[in-house]
Amino acid sequence: MLRHYREGALDSRRALRKVRARLAASQVKVPMPRLPEWRAVLGVAASLLMVAGIFGWSRHNSFTRLESGLEKRELLLPDSSVVTLAPGSEIRFRIKEMRGDGKRSVRLRGKAFFEVVHDGKRPFEVRSEGLCVRVLGTRFEVDAPKHSCYVEDGKVLLAASSGSEGMLLTRGMGARLENGRPVELREDELGLNPVAWQKEYVSYEAAPLDKVLLELEELFGKDIAVYPEDTDTASLLLSGDFDTESPSDVLAAISEAFGIRLRFVSQSDGNMTLRMNGV
Predict the structure, then answer these.
(1) How far apart are CA 59 and CA 79, in angstroms?
(2) Which of 55, 84, 164, 188 places its Cα 20 to 30 Å from the Cα of 272?
């Protein structure tokens, strides 16, 4: 659970995500029109061929929709970019646009993390209601409901629409739209691990435990209780990397490191909140 960080050690994680995304994308099935039987009369056959032609044109130009369901989902897009959908999210795109010579464009509902393949001649756009993110090639998160964007690497232009004035975001920057205008996010608004939901780990360097617990509560969707109740978690500083596949193991590792007890608050505990100084 608790590991020493080594430069370049996470490259294997990115490669594994791409393999998983490619496998998930291969499971998407596109329906194919059935050919008419040879006994069909010529007039009916001609009609069916015309319908098949219209069907093929519609399938080629209509939107392909991919959704995540109750768990996050990693997918490989037609241009070889990788997208990780947060639970309850979906994207739509036209295969023709993604494979063509023009602009690459996807429409997002919910939250997603993109690893866009660089193409200087073909910009990549993420659109949602009242939001447009434009890049050439980078890694970034878009939270459509919050009208926000965070850049892990590269450069991103955040705007209300493709034709409006935007803000250029670089590595480690985040911003949200307020009344259609970009506003940069403060460091405390970004959090300790801005895209922790997409990763399989969280990383801390002398981080106050009270802030760590707030982030873990949001990440795991559960309240965390601290024992003894009078533990001053703000004075405890945590450093290290933690795998997040097993939330209970994360709490166990932190508990052992500080000689305290952390546990998830069950529904039977009511509205109990025990974090800093028992407040």
Answers:
(1) 18
(2) 188
CA-based max dimension of the chain: 85
Cα(172)–Cα(170) distance, integer angstroms: 6
DSSP-derived secondary structure letter, 108: E
The phi, psi pair for 23, rounded to 5°, reads -65, -40
d(CA 18, CA 14): 6
**CA-angle at 22, arms to 18 and 28, nearest 5°:** 145
**Residue type at 241 in one-letter notation:** D
Residues 6+ apart with CB under 8 A from 106: 77, 83, 91, 92, 93, 98, 124, 125, 126, 127
| Tokens at 227, concatenated | 């024992």
Count how many Cα atoms sit within 13 Å of the Cα of residue 85 in the half-sphere of its side chain: 26
User: For the chain, what percentages of helix, strand and coil (3-state, to nearest 5) are there?
Assistant: 25, 30, 40
Asked if 224 contacts 272 with a C-beta cutoff of 8 angstroms, the reply is no
Q: How confident is the model at residue 17 (pLDDT cuts 50, 70, 90)?
A: low
**DSSP secondary structure letters along 53-85:** HHHHHHHHHSPEEEE-TTS-EEEE-TTS-EEEE
**Angle at which helices 209-220 and 247-258 pack, to 10 degrees?**
170
Distance CA 92, CA 84 (A): 13
User: What pTM was computed for the model?
Assistant: 0.72
User: What distance in Å separates the CA atoms of residue 14 and residue 12, rounded to the nearest whole number?
Assistant: 5
Report which secondary-structure segment, H or E, holds 187. Answer: helix 187-190
Q: What is the mean pLDDT of residues 238-265?
A: 95
The residue type found at 190 is L
pLDDT in tens, 77-135: 999 999 999 999 999 999 888 887 778 999 999 999 999 999 888 999 999 989 999 99
One-letter amino acid at 93 equals F
Considering only residues 4 and 128, tell me which one the structure prediction assigns the higher pLDDT.
Answer: 128
